[in-house]
Specification:
Low-confidence stretches of chain B: none
Distance between the termini of chain B: 11 Å
Largest sheet of chain B: 2 strands, antiparallel
Oligomer: heterodimer
Radius of gyration of chain B: 24 Å
Number of helices of chain A: 14
Shape of chain B: globular
Structural class of chain A: mainly alpha
Helix content of chain B: over 70%
Number of strands of chain B: 2
CATH topology of chain A: ABC transporter involved in vitamin B12 uptake, BtuC
Distance between the termini of chain A: 59 Å
Strand content of chain A: under 5%
Number of helices of chain B: 14
């Protein structure tokens, strides 16, 4: 049962890990992107559209293309969302909260709209979108995982997107703390005026960090659809995971490597109600509150403690105009 | 010209902040943005439906104003969105990013639903309504003051705190919905007090929604006066401009933050009451229907001015109704309206740049 619980916690946690890693990269540049939930929807539906069109137009799926095409569509779709956000907040200096929330409305709308109408628009007569074939390629795990008992079940039974998420998180952590680019990026997020004076191109860093962050977050949507939901898109099925990913950013104190453990913890908290005996439905709803409560407690404790490393980037949410001082 | 100067590249254009702009120019820019947005969403609609764009707009107008019933529905939705927008406005003016209106509305609604269910049979209707008003306003206020206390005392990030409070409220509502569900275990509360109508806001004449609309209108007027002509309103704008300035001229910043969030939450709670007791007569986790988030855009688009907010919330509600009609007419998914709303908001957000700044293009000089 423990192995089962942990395996499911990891499965639940991976989309959150993608989302929070993406949001950490974005926030490190000083952009508070509240559009992450929308971007994750768009990343998910982008992959679904790619996979659906490919499945509809080919009789025999080529394993490489069946993974590659949805992946590319997902990346492209979330990149576009990131560009919209950057163009509005960095180039046109719009308010980040408003832009982010609009992006979420837009993204969730796109996800649900195409999820509900894709089959009709593509002129196909399937009743609902079911991409089990593509999903099976995504969920392909190591063949010997089953022979290794609990170890295999917990650590080796997942699709490649799971390991990619962990690799990306570790990579981001490395870039942020160990490289010059990461140092510059953090400088932009902490104090853009100083960074600008030091000759760092604030706009470029904000654009790059936010767009890369969007792409990473979008992959979270894809991993939810393909890994967790077996390739079946259901409207609003993704739920509030996008906001949970933003909560995870706080919980991981803006460090992607901590976010890996945090995501498994949050994933576990998200499903723990299934593992508690004699719990009625109303009790389950109370249990789903825990991740948010934990985040608030954490936010309060870190702000009271005022530990430097645990604070949000100093210029988070603030726009930067060189001429306004 | 020396070698040194020749390699210096001149930027193609420069951006400068406008010192002031004539009011009609600002509105002309906004109008252009809306027209562009409508064209853009027309193109999107055309690509999806393959129907004549003009007839798409006709469908939208019909969806919003087609029948008397639809007009009343539009007015009701407008009033509700406006109410939540008015609620978040004082906080925003203070640069306190209260994105927790969704949760504040929900706990307000939850409080009035609780009163309706628990005291529906015992209290006389007038007393019940009074109790509902008090509890739901108090519930919304408490929900808003919790993050404000931490913000004022320890500078805890209010955007993230209020955001998390939303989901706690949603789960709390989900919990009670299961507790109260009729029939047991169905997960739906159903219409509360259907027979006795206890705790329902009374209809004026034949109209169920008129009282809601009047209350919201009153709140809007009061908020306009409060922000513009009262000492509190002045203090809010000073704190919003600069907390240090406010402290320097002797404004008690912490007190202003707490007081303003109290008001903000109280109005959100009132909106919850209007939704539960005056509109749906039930409660679910979707009672607020995302208005808490939409309201932020409405308030910001109106530059935090309650009167303009009537216009901006009308725009959003009109789009929602119109796009919903398009999706019914063409048998598309109803989320179509979210896409259209998103596009329009992007354009309006973007156009503010051209109101605040001028872009000067440099002409290429002849060699």
């Amino acid at each position: 049962m423990w192995a089962d619980f942990l395996q499911r916690a990891i499965m639940q946690g991976i989309p959150l890990l993608y989302g929070s890693t993406g949001e950490i990269m974005t926030e490190k540049s000083g952009n508070l992107n509240l559009g992450i939930p929308g971007i994750m929807y768009v990343g998910g539906i982008g992959g679904v559209i790619g996979a659906f069109l490919y499945e509809q137009n080919t009789a025999v799926l080529n394993p490489f293309l069946a993974v590659f095409l949805p992946l590319m569509c997902s990346i492209l779709a979330s990149l576009l969302m990131g560009l919209i956000y950057c163009f509005l907040t960095v180039s046109l200096r719009a308010n980040q909260n408003v832009t982010g929330l609009a992006l979420t409305t837009f993204g969730v709308g796109i996800g649900n709209f195409f999820g509900g109408s894709l089959a009709k628009l593509a002129g196909s007569d399937v009743p609902s979108i079911n991409l089990t074939a593509t999903s099976n390629y995504f969920r392909q795990s190591l063949p010997f995982a089953k022979d290794l008992g609990w170890f295999g079940q917990i650590f080796l039974s997942h699709g490649f997107l799971t390991y990619l998420a962990i690799a990306i998180a570790l990579g981001c952590s490395f870039v942020l703390t160990k490289t010059r680019v990461g140092l510059y990026l953090r400088a932009v997020g902490e104090n853009p005026a100083t960074a600008d004076a030091a000759g760092i191109s604030v706009g470029t860093y904000k654009y790059l960090a936010t767009c890369i962050g969007s792409v990473i977050a979008g992959l979270g949507g894809l991993s939810y659809v393909m890994d967790y939901a077996n390739g079946v898109w259901s409207n609003d099925g993704f739920g509030d995971r996008g906001w949970l990913a933003i909560a995870l950013v706080i919980f991981a104190v803006w460090r992607p490597n901590l976010s890996i453990l945090g995501s498994i913890l949050f994933g576990g908290l998200y499903i723990i109600h299934n593992y508690i005996p004699d719990l009625d439905v109303s009790g389950q709803e109370l249990f789903k509150m825990i991740p948010y409560l934990v985040t608030i407690v954490f936010l309060v404790v870190t702000s009271i403690g005022r530990k430097r490393e645990a604070q949000p980037p100093a210029s988070l949410g603030l726009p930067y105009f060189r001429e306004e001082r | 010209m020396t070698e040194q100067e020749a390699v210096i590249r001149e930027p193609r254009f420069t951006i400068a902040k406008r010192t002031s702009i004539v009011w009609w120019k600002a509105w002309l820019i906004r109008l252009c943005a809306i027209v562009l947005a409508l064209i853009c969403s027309g193109v999107v609609s055309y690509l999806i439906t393959r129907d004549n764009p003009l007839s798409i707009y006709a469908v939208m107008l019909d969806g919003a104003f087609g029948t008397k019933r639809r007009i009343w529905g539009l007015m009701q939705n407008l009033a509700m969105l406006l109410c939540v927008s008015i609620a978040v406005t004082p906080a925003f003016k203070m640069r306190f990013w209260n994105i927790g209106a969704e949760g504040q509305v929900l706990v307000g609604g939850l409080a009035s639903a609780a009163c309706m269910i628990l005291f529906g049979e015992t209290l006389p209707n007038a007393v019940l309504l009074l109790v509902m008003f008090i509890t739901s306003i108090a519930a919304g206020a408490v929900w808003a003051v919790i993050p404000a206390v931490f913000r004022a005392r320890w500078r805890t990030n209010e955007t993230l705190f209020t955001l998390m409070m939303n989901y706690i409220a949603i789960q709390l509502v989900a919990f009670f919905v299961y507790k109260w569900s009729v029939p047991k275990g169905s997960g739906q509360v159903g219409v509360i007090n259907r027979a006795s109508r206890a705790g329902w806001l009374p209809a004026i004449g034949n109209n169920d929604y008129l009282l809601n609309i009047l209350i919201v209108f009153l709140v809007t007027a009061i908020m306009y006066v409060y922000l513009r002509y009262s000492k509190h309103g002045f203090e809010i704008s000073v704190v919003g401009e600069s907390e240090n300035t406010a402290r320097y001229i002797g404004i008690p910043v912490q007190k202003v933050i707490l007081r303003t969030m109290l008001i903000s939450g109280a109005i959100s709670g009132l909106a919850g009451l209007l939704l539960v007791a005056g509109t749906d007569h039930t409660i679910s986790r979707d009672t607020a229907a995302g208005r808490g988030f939409t309201a932020i855009m409405v308030s910001w688009l109106a530059k935090f001015d309650p009167v303009f907010m009537i216009l901006t919330s009308f725009l959003i509600v009109f789009l929602e109704k119109g796009a919903t009609e398009i999706s019914t007419a063409f048998a598309l998914n109803e989320s179509f309206s979210d896409i259209i709303t998103g596009i329009i908001i992007f354009f309006i957000i973007g156009c503010e740049f051209f109101i605040q700044y001028t872009v000067k293009f440099k002409k290429k000089e002849a060699e």
